[in-house]
Each structure stands twice: as C-alpha cells, then as structure tokens.
Design goal:
Blueprint (H helix, E strand, L loop, with lengths): L5 H21 L5 H17 L13 H11 L5 H28 L2 H13 L1 H9 L4 H16 L3 H14 L7 H9 L10 H16 L3 H5 L1 H8 L11 H4 L7 H19 L8 H18 L9 H13 L5 H20 L8 H5 L6 H25 L9 H4 L3
Helix pairs in contact: 1-5, 1-6, 2-3, 3-4, 4-5, 4-6, 4-7, 4-16, 5-16, 7-8, 8-10, 9-14, 15-16, 15-19, 16-17, 17-19
Length: 400
C-alpha cells in the first residue's frame, strides 16, 4: 500500500473543487427534460402530495419519484433541488469507483486520483448539473453493488443491483458482468431472485397510494414504448443498419441477449483465469458493449462506461487510449444532443457545430474499433494470467 503525497492530495482536492465550481455555474440552465417533465412532476407532487402517486403523471420507476417528492417538500427552487440531488450522487459514484480501484490495486494514491478524475469528467458534470438527469443515482448504486460483489458480500451486492433496477432499466447494461460472474461460480443463481423482490418492495408505496400494481410492474415497458426510435443521440451500430431492421427494437434486444449468452459461456471455461483486474476489464466491456448493440440508446447511457473508464486508465495505463476514446465518444454524443435540441439554441453554436465535422457513422465505427481492441486485450490478459493471480470469488471462498 503506497502513501499519498501531499502534492497528490492537493491536486485531487483542486480537481474536486473545480468540478464543484463548474457544476454550480451550470445550475441556472434549464434542460428539455426539466421543462417537459421534471417540473411538472414536482408541481403535481406539490399539489396532491402522497395521494398524487396514484396518477400516471410520471413514466419513471417510482423510486426516483420518491426522491423528487423530497425535493418538492423543500423550499429549494425545483431546478436546483433536482440538480443538487444528482450532484450528490455524482460524488457517491466517485466514492465507490475509488473504493473499487483501491480494493483492486491497493494503492492509496489511485483511490484519490480516481475520485478526483470522476469528479471532473465532462459527461458526468453535464449529465446532472446541466441536463438535470438522474443517471448518477442508479450508476452509484451499480458501483456499490460491484464493490460489495468484489468484497465477496453477495447478498448486499444483489440487493443493491435490485435497487439500481428499481431506479432505471438501463441497469441491464451491467448484466453481462454479473452473468459471467455467476457462470464462473462466484454467486449462486438464486441470489438474483432478490432483484425482483427489491423492485416490488420499491413500488409498494405508489401502489398503496392507488396506482394500479400492473402499471407499476410494467413501467419500463411503457417507458420503452414512449421512445420508439432505435437511434438516439448515440453513435452505436444502428446509425449504420437502422433501415435494415425496420425499426424493430426486439431484434436488437434479442441479438444483445444472444451475444451475452455466447460471451458468458465462452468465458466460463476454466482455461481463462480471472484476476481482480480482469473483472474490472469485463465490467468496462459490459458497460460499453451493451450501449453499442442495444436499440434506443441515448447519449447519457454511457454514464457507467465513462466512470469505469477512469479505473481502466489507472489499472491499464498502456491501453489508456481505449477508455479515453470512450469518454470522447460519450462527450461527443452529449454535445450533438445539445446542438439539435431547440432549448439549447442560445448556447454557443460555434462550439457545438465543430462536432458536425465528425460524421456520425464514423464515430460509430471508431466506437466499434475500441470495443474490438478492448475485447482482444481482455482475452490476452486472461490467457496471460497465472493461477496464483486468480481472484477467489464469493461463493467459492464461502462454499457453505
């Protein structure tokens, strides 16, 4: 375990402070989702209180709406309250990523650097403090789940995974990681029965308020039908093939599922040795491959990939161009989103229009290339790992 020099600490504190200042400067800006959805949800809660949860005024899982209810009950300006909530979880995400990095590397300096770098990632800053989005919340819970998994606390890990699902359906992005972990004997399949249990527990308050139970169970189905397009503001495979599959999301979802199953059964072979670092590689791959192949992905669904990219940079510095490329692609997607949405028309178009020089399909090709190179590097790492490097997983460490 290394000691952290004062210089590293001061630099990290400086970056964290810089990230906080930038966030505060962005608080005054309205986003399309705030004007079109969030403020109306807040107003509904203010008007009707808990009884208002019986109405279908929201198309999110109710767990996040409970949090908005807390904002609604304060005297804070709603825009600021929503953004403060997201910013708090920005730093919670940074904390759990830093804990994962420290658990794997045992380097105190890396823990500080990881926290600081996540704090100033441009997409993380833009997501909550500018766009008033809630992606930091469910990603924080995912990272906490992964942390407890690597600490061999399987029950806590799966409960947190269920909570993440109760916040947002995009938690599915991390399922390939958990699937491989299960196939390699790290966790028993029946632990995952806790996921729907947690989801049901989290919808009970809204059900008690009077909203139909079936509506709450199918909230993610309703949400997916609201956005019909298979291409969002994200350069994945569908910018190339959207005309070929006739806008049928099911094809992309089935393909991603088959890809996960195939990859999982390949990686469960005993010839592959997984070190702790290997699991971080797989987490990164899961976080970047799923958004590439799943339909209807939006610019912010790379949030988990951006955060885990920091861990990848620190653990595999010779391959840092791969995670840096992912961060750029994600940032590029955000900027393109701003450029096309009318409410952002007052912002400096000269800056945004620069990104028009980069063709959308070219960016998707670069993204795919990064995925291929990352997977190749991952397989080579597994083949080069020695038996003594293998991480003894939860259920293997505690077979009883």
């Amino acid at each position: 375990m290394d000691k952290v020099s004062n210089r590293i600490k001061y630099c990290c504190f400086g970056l964290i402070f810089l990230g906080l200042v930038i966030r505060l400067l962005l608080f005054k800006y309205h986003s399309t989702d705030y004007g079109g959805f969030l403020i109306h949800w807040i107003d509904h809660i203010k008007t009707y209180g808990f009884a208002g949860f019986k109405d279908d005024f929201y198309n999110y899982a109710p767990t996040y709406i409970y949090m908005l209810a807390i904002v609604a009950k304060t005297d804070i300006y709603p825009l600021y309250g929503i953004k403060i909530l997201s910013v708090i979880f920005d730093f919670i995400a940074a904390y759990f990523l830093s804990q994962i990095v420290f658990h794997v590397t045992k380097k105190e300096s890396f823990k500080w650097i990881a926290f600081a770098l996540v704090s100033v990632l441009p997409t993380i800053i833009l997501d909550g403090s500018f766009m008033a989005q809630c992606d930091s919340i469910y990603v924080s819970v995912i990272l906490a789940s992964v942390y407890f998994l690597l600490k061999r606390n399987n029950p806590a890990s799966v409960i947190l995974l269920g909570l993440a699902f109760a916040l947002k359906a995009q938690t599915a992005i991390v399922l390939p990681f958990f699937f491989v972990y299960m196939l390699r004997g790290g966790i028993k399949w029946y632990y995952f029965l806790l996921v729907p249990v947690v989801f049901v527990i989290m919808i009970i308050p809204a059900w008690l308020a009077g909203r139909p139970f079936l509506d709450l169970l199918l909230v993610y189905k309703m949400q997916s039908e609201y956005y019909e397009g298979i291409v969002g503001f994200f350069p994945n495979i569908y910018v190339w093939i959207q005309q070929l599959i006739n806008y049928d999301k099911n094809i992309g979802m089935i393909f991603t599922m088959l890809l996960t199953l195939t990859g999982g059964f390949i990686l469960c072979r005993k010839k592959y040795i997984f070190s702790l670092e290997s699991w971080i590689q797989l987490l990164f791959i899961s976080a970047i491959v799923c958004p590439f192949f799943l339909p209807g992905m939006r610019e912010r669904y790379m949030f988990l990939g951006d955060v885990v990219a920091v861990a990848y940079i620190l653990m595999f510095p010779k391959k840092m161009y791969l995670p840096i490329g992912i961060i750029f692609i994600s940032f590029f997607s955000y900027i393109r989103c701003f450029y096309y949405f009318a409410p952002f028309a007052d912002y400096p178009q000269a800056v945004f229009s620069f990104f028009e020089f980069i063709p959308w399909r070219l960016m998707a090709l670069v993204y795919f290339t990064i995925i291929v190179l990352t997977v190749i590097d991952f397989i080579r790492t597994l083949q080069n790992n020695k038996p003594e490097d293998e991480f003894v997983m939860g259920d293997k460490a505690n077979p009883n």
